[in-house]
Design a protein that fits this description.
heterodimer; A: 278 residues; mainly alpha; two-stranded antiparallel ribbon; 2 strands; B: 251 residues; two-stranded antiparallel sheet; two-stranded parallel sheet; 4 strands; 47% helix
Chain lengths: 278, 251
């Protein structure tokens, strides 16, 4: 499939709309009207005259090959989503692990991670590449969590791993957005997943009785093996300047660090998840 | 700005457009009663403004604040800074009204953290924009009752949802890598906030993440949704004419 890019120089009056694009938009609009998946608070926004904008954006005005960087970033994101979706799928497939009280939250996240996998596979395929295969995972991390088998008594281990994976996902996506800046569809996709991972992270952290945000480089009560997920979160320089002065009256250094999710590089993330690959 | 209407929905019916809402308080009460009503900042502008607690006049009646997109990243950050100014001011007022409000101590702790984060976001964006780029707006809220737990949380959630969608949608116009990174660092914290507020409103429900993807909104939609909170008139110049909207589209 040929990859399309939309350039800032493109103008609405130069667009030609393919019939299948119009059909796709109409199908999408119908899905929104059914309340299929869109954020309820944004559905109304999307309904307020945005269809011409969507059509313009969907017009096939420019064709080109995706830079390898884009595919690489998408493949990397897909690996993360495989990890998360496998993790939650196993949890929801067994009985007794997830307490009834938390079942809705966990099932919601499980469904989202599966959807992320599907979307990223499609994005990669649309750029002429083959989506990487789903690897086998070892959620004992080569013995760091020895004996963890998603057994009924192991919910505490499950949720601490969930917190680590979600916070890791947020930071990993933050680190990748700059690599896809020239492919606005890929950028949208990564950002749209990025904030959903952050919603998950906050929810899991709160399930565990923690704040929804990361303070300093604290791993909270997580084991030392997971500290690399939080290393470097204690940055107090933003937009090129230390912000301690700006935060002085607003929670100080703790708030200054919590107010921003710092990026992790692909190498840093890979080092963290490698033990989880079987 | 075009005329704004109240849009309501429920699971089974197509959108219904309402035009006869008499006050923001009425709207907020209605919004808090059932899930059928979409609470959206932009709809606040459809409500008559009788006892403004912020500015002297209604939304958009003050001086014109130009946002000129020929300035590139500066203009995008200016628009995002409008949201951060609203959020920071909103949460500061919520904190000020803690005594006598019906928020629990645990909820106040969450809100206090968010208030600090938003104040820091506001300050960091202002510093990043510098003297030549910073714009100052006057947030206004109509008759919003800052002592009502339900109304405060609902408004907080609307602002958080707008913030997430705005950062997600505005990032495609950012040229400088450092600016894009800064926006991403903030966007996910806004999402953490939204999730926590959802958890306060509907604990252990699926509301903390209503969809698999947070959909981006365009620059003009952000301004449209923010204007009801702003006394000044937000005015775009040289705004981009294209918007890549849909994260589901594979490109």
């Amino acid at each position: 499939m040929t990859h399309r890019m939309t350039t800032a120089a493109a103008r609405e009056d130069s667009f030609t709309i393919d019939p299948e694009i119009i059909a796709a938009v109409e199908a999408r609009a119908a899905a929104i009207a059914r309340g299929a998946s869109a954020n309820m608070h944004l559905r109304a926004l999307l309904a307020l005259g945005s269809v011409p904008i969507a059509l313009a954006a969907l017009a096939r005005d420019v064709y080109g090959q995706a830079p390898s960087d884009v595919v690489d970033a998408l493949q990397f994101a897909l690996l993360l989503e495989y990890l998360e979706s496998d993790f939650y799928q196993r949890a929801t497939a067994v009985t007794g692990l997830v307490p009834t009280t938390d079942a809705t939250v966990i099932a919601t996240i499980a469904a989202h991670e599966a959807a992320h996998v599907t979307a990223l596979q499609a994005l990669i395929g649309a750029r002429g590449a083959t989506a990487r295969a789903r690897p086998a995972f070892d959620f004992t991390a080569k013995g760091a969590f020895a004996g963890f088998t998603f057994a009924a008594s192991q919910y505490a281990t499950f949720t601490l791993l969930a917190q680590a994976f979600e916070d890791l996902g947020v930071r990993a996506y933050t680190g990748q957005v700059g690599r896809v800046v020239n492919d606005k569809h890929a950028l949208n996709a990564l950002l749209s997943v990025h904030s959903v991972e952050a919603r998950h992270a906050s929810a899991i952290r709160r399930l565990r009785g923690r704040k929804g945000w990361i303070t300093g480089n604290s791993r909270d009560d997580l084991p030392a093996a997971l500290q690399p997920v939080y290393d470097g979160e204690d940055v107090i320089v933003q937009a090129g300047a230390a912000i301690v002065d700006l935060a002085a009256s607003f929670g100080g250094t703790d708030a200054a660090t919590a107010a921003f999710d710092e990026p992790l590089t692909m190498a840093q993330v890979t080092a963290i998840i490698t033990p989880f690959l079987a | 700005m075009q005329q704004m209407d109240i849009v309501t929905r429920d699971a089974d019916r197509p959108p219904v457009v309402r035009t006869a809402v008499t006050s923001r308080r009425t709207f907020l009460r209605r919004a808090s009663i059932g899930s059928a009503v979409v609470l959206l900042p932009s709809v606040f502008a459809g409500c008559e403004d009788t006892t403004n607690t912020g500015g002297l006049t209604g939304p958009g009646t003050g001086t014109t604040v130009p946002i000129d997109f020929s300035r590139g990243d500066v203009a995008v950050l200016q628009l995002l800074s409008v949201l951060e100014q609203i959020e920071a001011d909103f949460y500061a007022k919520v904190v000020t009204n803690f005594s006598g409000a019906s928020l629990t101590v645990a909820e106040q702790a969450v809100i206090s953290d968010i208030a600090n984060h938003e104040a820091i976001h506001r300050a960091v964006l202002a510093r990043a924009l510098g003297a030549s780029g910073s714009i100052a707006i006057t947030p206004i809220y109509g008759t919003l009752d800052f002592r009502s737990r339900t109304i405060v949380l609902a408004a907080a959630l609307s602002l958080a949802a707008l913030g997430i969608a705005a950062y997600t949608g505005a990032s495609q116009y950012l040229v400088e890598g450092a600016t894009l990174l800064l926006a991403a660092k903030i966007a996910s914290v806004e999402a953490r906030h939204a999730s926590a507020i959802n958890d306060l409103m509907a604990p252990l429900s699926a509301d903390f993440a209503p969809a698999s993807f947070d959909e981006p909104v365009s620059l003009s939609q952000v301004a449209f949704a923010a204007q009801p909170y702003v006394e000044e008139k937000l005015a775009f110049a040289n705004a981009p004419t294209t918007f890549v909207a849909n994260p589901f589209d594979k490109g």
